[in-house]
Amino acid sequence: MQFENSFDVSLPPDVAWRRLIDIPRIAPCLPGAELTDVTDTGEFLGRFSVRVGPVRLRFDGRARIVALDDVARTARVECEGLDEGRRGTVMAVVDFRLEPTAAGSRVVVTTDLTLAGPITRYVRGTAVYRDIAAYLLQDFAETLDQTVAAEADATGIAPDAGGPAPAVDGLHVLGRAIGSAVGLRRIG
Predict the structure, then answer these.
(1) pLDDT tens digits for range 100-151
(2) Assuming Cys at both sites, which of 68, 91, 96, 119 could form a disulfide with 114, CB separation 3.0 to 4.6 Å?
(3) Cα-based angle 52, 22, 64 (whole degrees, multiple of 5)
(4) pTM recorded for the entire structure
(5) Alpha-carbon span 39 to 42, nearest angstrom
(6) Entry's PANTHER family (predicted)?
(7) For the purposes of burial, counting CB atoms within 10 Å of the CB of 6, is it exposed (0-12), middle (13-18) or buried (19 or more)?
(8) Which of 73, 131, 69 is CA-nearest to residue 106?
(9) CA angle 128, 132, 136 (to 5 degrees)
(10) Tens digit of each residue's pLDDT (9 = 90 or more) over 36-50
């Protein structure tokens, strides 16, 4: 199934693009994601968990950037994962493109998602997956914006100055993870 989502960030396109392709730096901003390793071949290994109704799915997987165009600000990422309960697999090809806006940048995300195995019975229909993806991307965008603002406050370096990036605010991400673990998160 294929669907498209978008989100806005308050960064100029050049800065937003550098941030968005820095996977180790932005992975903590995605709710439910944990980057565990980056291989010598450029693969990103990690875990991802999401609640679908009463069911929490946890995937161990890998992702890799298979196409990257810094001039056009487009990228393609291929992802695959296996649910830790062996309830199925997920494969996705995700295309990103960045567009300038008056307030910063818009990231348009097109996802071609394939689910296999028993996990497909938990949710039927593309609309539910699109809504989950939209919620996750919105949460990601808000966390990214908050992180950028916190970095600017802590370092005195404006987000568009291109200076070195401090670490992501782990306390904020931890708070979101705890809220998710106890079921306080609304999906959809």
Answers:
(1) 999 999 999 888 888 888 777 766 655 666 677 777 777 777 777 777 667 6
(2) 91
(3) 65
(4) 0.71
(5) 5
(6) BLL0334 PROTEIN (PTHR38588:SF1)
(7) middle
(8) 73
(9) 170
(10) 999 999 899 999 887
Q: How far is CA 140 from CA 20, 86, 89, 143, 163, in A?
A: 11, 27, 23, 5, 22
Strands 33-38 and 104-116: unpaired
pLDDT tens-digit readout, 63-102: 999 999 999 999 999 999 998 877 788 888 999 999 999 9
- Alpha-carbon distance of 161 to 73, in angstroms, equals 19
Question: What is the CA angle 122-124-130, rounded to 5?
Answer: 105
* Tokens at 188, concatenated: 């959809």
Give the separation between CA 91 and CA 78, rounded to whole angstroms.
8
d(Cα 55, Cα 13) in Å, to the nearest integer? 37
